[in-house]
Amino acid sequence: MSSVDINQILKRRNAVSLRASQLPASGIRKFFDLLSSMEGVISLGVGEPDFVTPWHIREAAIYSLEKGYTMYTSNKGMPELRQALSAYLKSHFGLTYNPDTELLITVGVSEALDLATRAILDPEDEVIISDPSYVAYPACITLAGGVPVAVPTQAETGFRLNAASVESNITRHTKAILLGYPANPTGAVMSRSELIQVCQVAQKHNLLVISDEVYSRLVYGVEHTCLASLPDMKERTILLGGFSKAFAMTGWRVGYAAARPDIIEAMTRIHQYTMLCASITGQVAALEALNNGEKEVQQMVLEYDRRRRFMVKGLNSIGLSCPEPQGAFYCFPSIRSTGLSSEDFAEKLLMEEKVAVVPGSAFGSGGEGHVRCCYATSLPDIEEALKRMGRFVKKLNVQKP
Amino acid sequence: MTGKSVAEVEAVIKKAEAEHLIVKYKTTINWQKAGEEQVWALIEVKVAPQRDVGFDAVAERIYRFPQARSVYLMSGTYDLAVLIAGKTMHEVADFVSMKLAPLEGVQGTTTHFLLRRYKDDGEILEGGETLHRQPLIL
Q1: Which domain holds residue A46?
Q2: Nearest-by-Cβ selection for A46 from B1, B3, B137
Q3: B3 and chain A: CB distance < 8 Å anywhere?
Q4: Based on the domain organization, do A101 and A32 belong to the same domain?
Q5: Nearest 5°: phi and psi at A23?
């Protein structure tokens, strides 16, 4: 390697591609650095369950390893898992997907989203997303060569996507609408009638819909409507789901896509070159989760619901206005009353009271004025965090002129 | 958190306590960790059933003793399973040989001393799980 000097090469051209360098840096990276050097921090900044995967699921995976299941699986995923998934979608949403041609097992919903955008987008195709929305949505669209078009949603209307606003943002380049409800970071859930209105816009303008429903099982007091189950929507919907949130399986990285055969075929083609298949151990665990994991899902949902109500009440009582989120495990209170930007609020709160929340601006400009607080944390920690936040807000109010 | 008022919840609890639906509130203590030596034994008891009352009369004679912490009627090769707690092995052995075995209707006993508790009342006593997660994830 003596004749090749990497520094010489780097001098001649940029090492990082234009595409990569144009991706926005995560809005919370500096908090990571701060957090890692601090002790005694209560983090409400984690977007994952605080439950360990139920033991029977882990045990099934351990057993499969003992039996030597360590190989690749079919590109589309283990046939048994696709069959179980097909039955699951049928029993929960009344949807019929052919396990051989209409389902694809992916490495988490993240990969499914990447595949979906890459499979349907040509350069300059536009995809409508809500603002604020999950950070990966605009990034995946951009990486696939498309253009994200953010449609603002408001706290007053519960951060639900309005069909008229969607329609007013449609151009001749619009290819799809990307929805993620129940929503990260807002906890918003779209009602059936609101979804139908958005779907009618999609039908009128012949758009595809990517529906990220990874939080579909985490709804409280309302019913989740699977977008693909709405009239005439299965054909134009790419349904994305996963095991991470409902079954507390984030680290296993197993998700899925359900769509019509030509789209699944296109996604599978990309998947086979870039990922080959999801890990077999993860797939075995996912199969066990589908077959025997329902009881734990319901227990976890009950527990999240208790914490949700506790946190909403607490946030409102300390003066951070927080309408009741109906899904996922996030509260998205307004911090406007403090006069701080969401980033300043999050940073000061961390430094002064050692509570970590995520600034709403990390999820798009529509998230400014809010912070995301995750209640997938123990009740005593939530209680202590609220106490500290209350003290923090009170101090800010005293300082105000 | 339950969506009910404090008074409503209190009323439900009071009613359940009165009806003996809630029997007792217990604390599970890890005695090994507390350094408090306790001797526990599981006694298998063979009983000759009696007319009209079956095993109930002998069971009652046994469960009246405060040393008998749990008493169960079992299917299988023996009839009653009795959990005995004492301060020393001798104390437990004495109770079995002097009180339990001589009871009328008791045909035989087998004593198993408990060596280590791994899980009690649904709680894992040692080496529970900790959460390994990043403090911040989008």
Answers
A1: 24-53+296-396
A2: B137
A3: yes
A4: no
A5: -65, 135
Q: Are residues A270 and A135 in the same domain?
A: yes
Nearest to A45 among B2, B129, B135 (CB): B135
Provide, as residue numbers in chain B, all residues whose Cβ is less than 8 Å from the Cβ of A47: 137-138
pLDDT tens readout for residues A256-268: 999 999 999 999 9
- Say yes or no: A98 and A153 in one domain: yes
- The full set of domains in chain B, from first to last, is 37-116 (3.30.70.920)
- A3 in any annotated domain: no
HSE-CB of A56 using CA atoms within 13 angstroms: 12
Bridge partners (DSSP) listed for residue A355: A42
**Neighboring chain A residues of B137 at a CB cutoff of 8 Å:** 45-48
Amino acid at A55: W
Region A306-315 average pLDDT: 96
Question: What distance lies between CA A67 and its chain's CA centroid?
Answer: 34
What is the per-residue pLDDT across A128-174, written as a single tens digit (0 to 9) for each?
Answer: 999 999 999 999 999 999 999 999 999 999 999 999 999 999 999 99
In a domain, A19, yes or no: no
What ipTM was predicted for this assembly? 0.72
- With beta carbons less than 8 A apart as the criterion, state whether A209 and A202 touch: yes
